[in-house]
Design brief:
Number of strands: 4
Order of helices and strands: HHHHHHEHEHHEHHHHEHHH
Largest sheet: 2 strands, antiparallel
Structural class: mainly alpha
Number of helices: 16
CATH architecture: Orthogonal Bundle
Strand content: under 5%
CATH topology: ABC transporter involved in vitamin B12 uptake, BtuC
Helix content: over 70%
């Protein structure tokens, strides 16, 4: 009797699929390595140097003190970077023009003084005093920007005069008292003292951030594909989103081990992300990069150099004012020393260390975040290991010098490849 059993169609087994999957992954890795080498040889280093420096700083200080990477210290670190970090974000805008703003420290102190005197001494509601303080920073920055654009005097000279002027005005506003203590339960004080203690809040923010990264990357891919421009592959977008997700959810987990998500960090990241979209997704942002690349070419392209320069210095002044309020919130007071010391140097160093070019035309707002992480991690590690402050300055100066050298070599390499 004949056997009616029919042979089942052959299906690939797990063992058969594994070599194909391995080959696919291997080809993808080879492609990424080739792209990375090409960018490296062309001087397009991106955030790689600062990430390596940050990793080295964390490894060294964790080896010296086991509390460095504790949830408490990392949570405090995430709040400590906000005040100066916001000022550094404004510096990034100015550096993209190939200029320098030396007045941000004084503007931050002036804005904090305006808020304190209006709210504490004059009884003006906090929300109104807060708005006036921020607008003070915007106005001072716009005045400097307009003067710089119209007179064509170098920005560092105009803002050096501003440094002295706004510092003198701050001292005049504070008067003889010299120090004004803020309400510890007030709106400004809570900027750096409030935490979202519900663990779901941190994870929700991580999920939203990951989704936004994927959405922005995907929409950018579709737009570039529609115009026939080079675009990122879906695989590359997925891998990039996965990396962001790992960092975001790991950060949320660590923060939840202490007090939860700090309000200050949330505001900082929202501002940085928002301004990054302004730089890369708007006509205004493209004008800034164009002007930083070549002023003469920008003029011939009918760009309003005066308007862009004025707006950029206004942004810098606004961010300095907001940063000054966060710094005042951290210590719940404003004094004659507000905005002085190493604040200006740290803000500029953060932007440069993070990868913003001193020659203009290259950098992002995230540069300020990475740079501030390096500087504040160094300060935090020094404090935990009882290292003298002098050593901290030497290390920060060395990292800054290395960043400038890398920037110069990178630009020279790009010029050799016709990309600068």
């Amino acid at each position: 009797m004949a056997d009616d059993t029919r042979a089942e169609p052959a299906t690939p087994t797990t063992e058969a699929r594994q070599p194909h999957l391995a080959r696919t992954i291997a080809r993808a890795v080879e492609g990424w390595v080739a792209v990375f080498r090409r960018k490296l040889s062309a001087g397009e280093l991106g955030a790689l140097p600062v990430v390596l420096v940050l990793a080295a700083v964390w490894i060294v200080f964790q080896a010296l003190n086991q509390n460095f990477l504790s949830p408490r210290n990392l949570s405090n670190l995430s709040v400590d970077i906000v005040g100066t970090g916001l000022i550094a974000v404004g510096i990034v805008f100015v550096l993209l023009l190939g200029e320098l703003d030396l007045s941000v420290g004084s503007i931050s102190g002036l804005a904090a003084a305006v808020f304190a005197v209006l709210n504490v001494n004059s009884g003006v509601p906090e929300w109104l005093a807060l708005i006036v303080a921020v607008l003070t920073g915007t106005a001072t920055g716009a005045v400097q920007g307009f003067s710089f654009a119209r007179t064509r005097v170098p920005a560092f000279v105009v803002t050096l005069a501003g440094l002295l002027t706004w510092n003198g005005l701050m001292l005049y506003i504070l008067g003889n008292s010299g120090t004004v203590n803020l309400d510890e339960n007030g709106l400004v004080a809570k900027l750096t003292s409030y935490y979202f203690t519900n663990s779901a809040a941190a994870y929700a923010v991580a999920a939203v951030a990951t989704s936004m990264v994927f959405l922005v990357s995907y929409l950018g891919r579709r737009r570039r594909k529609a115009f026939g421009m080079p675009y990122r592959s879906l695989r590359g977008i997925t891998i990039r989103t996965g990396a962001v997700a790992m960092i975001a959810f790991a950060t949320a987990y660590v923060l939840n081990q202490f007090q939860g998500l700090p309000l200050a960090l949330l505001i900082f990241l929202v501002v940085v992300a928002g301004l990054d979209i302004v730089l890369h997704r708007t006509h205004y942002g493209r004008q800034i990069y164009a002007l930083g690349g070549s002023v003469e070419a920008a003029r011939r392209a009918s760009l309003s150099v005066t308007r862009v320069r004025t707006a950029v210095l206004a942004v810098s002044g606004t961010m300095a004012a907001i940063g000054g309020l966060f710094l005042a919130s951290r210590i719940t007071s404003v004094s004659q020393s507000s905005g002085s010391g190493v604040l200006l140097l740290n803000a500029i160093a953060a932007a440069v260390i993070g990868g913003t070019s001193l020659f203009g035309g290259r950098g992002t707002t995230w540069s300020a975040v990475l740079g501030m992480l390096v500087i504040q991690s160094n300060a935090s590690g020094m404090a935990l290991t009882d290292t003298p402050a002098a050593v901290q300055f030497v290390i920060t100066g060395g990292v800054l010098f290395a960043a400038v050298v890398i920037d110069s070599l990178s630009r020279r390499s790009q010029e050799a490849h016709g990309r600068a």
